[in-house]
Amino acid sequence: MNPTQSKPITILLDNNAHRYAQQFAKEQSNPIKGKQVYLNTLTVYSIHTYLKCLNINSNLANSDCWQTGLRAMFNVADITLSNGKLECLWLLPGEETTTIPLEIREDRLGYIVVQLEAELKQIELLGFISGDNIKFDTETINISQLQPLETLFDVIATPKKTPLNQWLNNIFTSDWQPVETILAGRITRSLTTANSTTAITRGKTIAWQINSLEQEIILVIKMMPQSDKTVDLCLQLYPGEGNNNLHAGLSVSILDAANQTCMSAQAKDTDDWMQLEFSCQPKEEFKVEMNLEGVSIVEQFLA
Amino acid sequence: MEQQLSKAISECRQSTDTTQRQKCLNHLLILIQQLPGIYFASHQDYPEAYNRTLEWVCKNIDRFEPTTDSVSRSMVIWINGYLKWRIRDLYISDNSYDPNRVYSSSKKDNNIDLIETIADPQISLSLLDTQIEKMQAEKEENIGNAIANYIKQDLGNNLTTTHPRKHPQCNCHCLAQRLLLEDPPDKVSKIARDLAVNNQTLYSHWKKKCLPLLQEISNSINN
């Protein structure tokens, strides 16, 4: 397989794509803005079609470009996925560079670039560039910078950052359960002691598929906001339901935003829990990497 | 091609990891699109039938069995079997679109089936400007105008009064005009130079203050 040398995938622009594009372009204040919206809509609709082929759920109804007011206000061609937004950028025939509107720099998972053709009957998916490569002052993308389209799938698979700061406002995603629920009837360590009035504790099931067997553990995060705005965090691992001990060799590491390991621990035969304690600055990012028999699962957090 | 295709098919079937399967299917699509003999029809709904066929192939690749001694020939036969059936379906039920295929464009449009209200598109890139101009003229209420006017006039001074403390000139009114109404938009570096602020200050203000404010405005105009 050598995707860099292969021909780009073509998606035909069907009537639905053109109808949406007409409807949306009509609402705009002038032909220039109308054309921008028309081509944005064609591109977004066809990438939505492509993602559907690969069984990737994309939500147009939740995308800014599908909102009447937002597409009139901004130059947006976004597609909402479960862990963030993809932006779709197009090139006119003969163009090799596309401009990135200021409003869509920095907070996208990545950018798919397509080539339009004169008859507007099809688009070619030229490639992808990850959001990590686009800074606020990145004005353009040239096709020479594009990565093969398949790099998109690694970015899509990157887990969403859990915003711990939202926990302080009692906002939790459904995967993070109260400890009383997820560890019901189990003995927990130091989760209800000091600081319990301000501490917030939640747990999540982490599951591996190893040799066709599901192996589970429970990851618990206890967060304790401090008066200097830093946050003390206590991370604990417990065996999954039905197990008394953690799997021997299970390791856990805390990595900073630059992927440097800050601390780590490894379970021994008889361990029935593990714990790491550390502090974070507000908005600091970190990762928890859990490794079992060579298979890593990474959870990302925003303090 | 025979070898590449066989390899791609077996990789798709063997991949248990979601990301790996997506990569395999992506590669399979590239190969399939290079196969000679995929059925073509000039029906206006052929593109939709073709796209749906790609989706069907990806979903059903595990069920593909070669029926001849050539994998690529068998693949073309397999794909054409489905594609021809889809096209026949289109010719038979030419006007019976499924409204569920269409997403509503906004809360307001919930009950309107776009397919019923818009004529068939016959647009190419060279005709796009004039076509759009014509369409825009037909539409009496135009959200685009409402938004452009709001930005230009800023009647409540909402945009003008939102600026970094020490830089009143770097306000959302000025930035929105230069970044959203100009085509092409002015560059950050140029605006920053004109307003005597640094690029980062301008960008942070735009991102943190102006974008949320403008989003709010666009929602309020739309409702």
Which helices and strands appear, and what pairs or packs with what?
The complex is a heterodimer of chains A (303) and B (223).
Chain A: E1 9-12, H1 15-26, H2 31-53, H3 68-73, E2 78-81, E3 84-91, E4 97-99, E5 110-116, E6 122-130, E7 140-142, H4 151-157, E8 161-163, H5 164-167, E9 177-178, H6 179-182, E10 200-210, E11 213-225, E12 231-239, E13 251-256, E14 261-266, E15 274-280, E16 285-292, E17 295-302
Parallel strand pairs in A: 3-5, 8-17
Antiparallel strand pairs in A: 1-6, 2-3, 4-7, 5-6, 9-10, 10-11, 11-12, 12-15, 13-14, 13-16, 16-17
Chain B: H1 2-14, H2 18-32, H3 46-60, H4 71-92, H5 114-117, H6 128-138, H7 143-153, H8 172-181, H9 188-195, H10 199-222
Helix pairs in contact in B: 1-2, 3-4
Question: Describe it for me?
Answer:
The complex is a heterodimer of chains A (303) and B (223). Chain A is built from 6 helices and 17 strands. Chain A is of the alpha+beta class and 303 residues long. Chain A has 2 domains: 9-156, 3-Layer(aba) Sandwich (Trna Endonuclease, Chain: A, domain 1); 161-302, Immunoglobulin-like. Chain B has 223 residues and is mostly helical. Chain B is elongated and about 75 Å long. Mean pLDDT of chain B is 84; it is low at 99-120. The chains are: A alpha+beta (303), B mainly alpha (223). At the A-B interface, strand 1, helix 1, helix 2, helix 3 and helix 4 of A face helix 2, helix 3, helix 5, helix 6 and helix 7 of B.
Brief sketch in words of this structure:
The complex is a heterodimer of chains A (303) and B (223). Chain A is α+β, with helices and mostly antiparallel strands.
